[in-house]
Amino acid sequence: MALWSVVLIGLIATTFFIVWFAASPPSSPSPKPVQTEPSGIIKPSLGIGPGDWVEGSREARTVLVEYSDFQCPACRAYAPLVKQLHTELGDQLAIVYRHFPLSNIHQHAQMAAQVAEAAGLQGKFWDMHDLMFNHQEEWSKEENPMDLFLKYAEELSLDLEKFQKDLHSQQVKQAIRENVQSGALLIIEGTPTFFLNEIKIQNPQSYGAFRTLILNEIGPTP
To answer: pLDDT of 101-116, one tens digit each?
Structure first.
């Protein structure tokens, strides 16, 4: 009798377990960890940074960022248009210049960028910027344009000893490198490339078209 009692109890327990398992829904699997963007990939800022060269007011609500190459003929063509925007709009518009030398097709572009950066360390970035574009046809044709670059530095009354030292400094090279890296992350394919309040724009075909784009962004003055 004892044996049958054990068997009977076992059958009842097994039946109860089967019925309970069938009636109970399986527990939900643990949630998978959320996929995040790989660390180290950061969208470059199109706002004004402390190292940016700016014409106009740094406090302006409208910001035009240009990625440019001093040896690029198209950049030279747009330089007077951008200058005219600054002349007309003044502190309503912040104009930011960033280096993007296309060294694979412009052999002196990197050095030209270094020239402008070195002049900037003596407070003459925009003066050198204008000289480089105004005389682009002159220095870009030279096998070694360094004599011309020194001539421009002398015209701007720069300390030539400091200029030549800064020209090859890591500080100057790093500033250009950071501009190029930010442009690469923005997938810039050519120069000049413009961003108006962080939105990439098609290059306007005239000063009037450029001016209209900027004024529409500025909006009515209070």
So the answer is: 999 999 999 999 999 9
Q: Structural domain boundaries of the chain?
A: 53-218
Contacts of 193 (CB under 8 A, 6+ apart): 66, 67, 100, 183, 186, 200
- As a dihedral over the C-alpha atoms of residue 117, residue 123, residue 124, residue 125, rounded to 10 degrees, the angle is 40
- What is the longest distance spanned by two Cα atoms in the chain? 118
Per-residue pLDDT tens over the stretch 119-168 = 999 999 999 999 999 999 999 999 999 999 999 999 999 999 999 999 99
Which CATH number describes the domain made up of 53-218? 3.40.30.10
Tokens at 73, concatenated: 């003929």
Query: What are the structure tokens assigned to 222, written together?
Result: 């209070």
How many CB atoms lie under 10 A from the CB of residue 54? 17
pTM for the whole structure: 0.80
